[in-house]
Write a structure and sequence with these properties.
five-stranded mixed sheet; 3 helices; globular; 5 strands; alpha+beta
Length: 118
């Protein structure tokens, strides 16, 4: 059975020593100017807006939060009482509604696999 997360699970672990960054996430954070402090702020203020129960090797979710005036989407999972940070990005207002919670409808020929950016 696939797991679902609640934001409190992430908030309870929300500290740098409880986070694992993949090589991919380190690269993306650097490219996008996202710092660990931004991730911590976004999780603290965040909410889970999508669940990805079929992700492998563990289920993940999409968190919407903010750091200062910056909105962030964070794809993360929890394994062994650690937050695994998969990626984070500033959501594109062309792909999301004004709240950045709901994806805008896209035409059939431009549909992707769901996740906006990796």
């Amino acid at each position: 059975m696939a797991a679902s997360y609640i934001i409190e699970q992430f908030k309870n672990l929300n500290a740098p020593e409880n986070m694992i960054l993949t090589q991919h996430s380190r690269k993306r954070f650097s490219e996008r100017g996202i710092k660990i402090a931004d991730i911590i702020n976004a999780i603290s203020s965040g909410e889970i807006i999508e669940q990805y129960p079929e992700d492998f090797p563990v289920p993940s979710c999409l968190i919407l939060g903010s750091s200062g005036s910056k909105k962030l989407h964070i794809v993360a999972s929890i394994k062994d009482n650690m937050i695994w940070l998969i990626t984070a990005y500033i959501p594109d207002d062309g792909l999301w509604d004004e709240s950045f919670r709901i994806r805008k409808k896209r035409s059939e020929d431009s549909q992707s696999d769901g996740k906006e950016e990796s």
